[in-house]
Specification:
CATH architecture of one domain: 3-Layer(aba) Sandwich
Helix content: 25-40%
Number of helices: 10
CATH superfamily of one domain: Vaccinia Virus protein VP39
Largest sheet: 8 strands, mixed
Strand content: 15-25%
Distance between the termini: 38 Å
CATH class of one domain: Alpha Beta
Radius of gyration: 19 Å
CATH topology of one domain: Rossmann fold
């Protein structure tokens, strides 16, 4: 799994992931890294990136962490895995080595045994694509393995478009319902993911830190904003076909405003850092 349902729901192309990478990097809550680093075990670090996509999390995070690092990239798409591996930085934040391994498959099946020896589990734009049961299993696996989790850019359901339009609220509600849809027998969490994840990790004894990481899109992000609009409206209409006629006119107005540099959008996301209560048999970086 990789990428949000925000654009082309269920389809996460390299083009879309590359288009959003700059906005993702600007949005991520860097203060969580200051909380994370003292809780990490001594290097070399083993970092698992779930639903890695094109590797944007690794490009953003590897240089912010110290010491030698071994990244294990997980995704279902073999083409994205190769692209992610090629793009991963070769050095850590203090100039030490960074290596990479690839694991293709469904990240929802990871258990504590697979996480043994993992220093950090991370993911970007993943939680909202999971079910409550899958999030609970992930939290339990991290707790049992004593593994911190940095989970970035989960949608919150908050969207603000400027200037406002009378159809904004109705489309936003339909989009949120689309994110909560049931597909292949799985009821996705969508904008409920952050609250569900916090509760799941806290039940497992973790200390959870939550920080906002919104996209702030404007004239400097015209291509991304246009793609986001098309996906956002398209998902809303898929959920509520009765909105189709009004949504077509709405999208034309909004795309014209985007082209003219007159549209700004704030898309709410949250970042979570879950620190396990115990990290058995592992020295931390802040211990002498």
């Amino acid at each position: 799994m990789s990428g949000p349902v925000e654009c082309a729901p269920g389809t996460f192309t390299a083009e879309w992931l590359e288009l959003r990478e700059g906005a993702d990097a600007a949005a991520r809550a860097t203060e969580l890294i200051d909380m994370l680093v003292p809780a990490l075990p001594r290097p070399p670090l083993v970092i698992r990136d779930l639903g890695c996509g094109t590797g944007s999390m690794g490009r953003w995070l590897a240089g912010r962490l110290p010491g030698p690092q071994h990244w294990i990239l997980h995704d279902r798409d073999p083409r994205l895995l190769v692209q992610a591996a090629v793009g991963l930085p070769g050095m850590s934040g203090d100039g030490d080595w960074v290596t990479v391994a690839l694991e293709r498959g469904d990240v929802t099946g990871l258990r504590a045994a697979e996480l043994a020896g993992t220093s950090l589990l991370t993911a970007s734009a993943l939680l909202d694509l999971l079910t409550a049961h899958e999030v609970a299993d992930l939290a339990a696996a991290c707790a049992a393995a004593g593994c911190p989790a940095l989970l970035a850019l989960s949608v919150t359901g908050y969207v603000r478009l400027t200037p406002a339009d009378p159809l904004d609220t109705e489309l936003a509600a339909a989009f949120d319902d689309h994110q909560r849809r049931t597909t292949a027998g799985r009821r996705l969490l969508g904008p409920d993911a952050v609250g569900v994840a916090i509760a799941a990790f806290e039940r497992c004894g973790a200390q959870v830190h939550r920080r906002p990481s919104p996209w702030r899109l404007g004239p400097d992000h015209a291509a991304l904003l246009a793609r986001w609009l098309q996906g956002w409206v398209g998902a809303a209409v898929e959920q509520r076909p009765d909105l189709a006629a009004a949504a077509d006119a709405y999208l034309c107005r909004r795309l014209a405003a985007c082209s003219a540099g007159e549209l700004r959008v704030l898309v709410g996301h949250d970042d979570l850092l879950a620190l396990p209560a115990e990290r058995p048999n592992r020295d931390r970086m802040d211990e002498s």
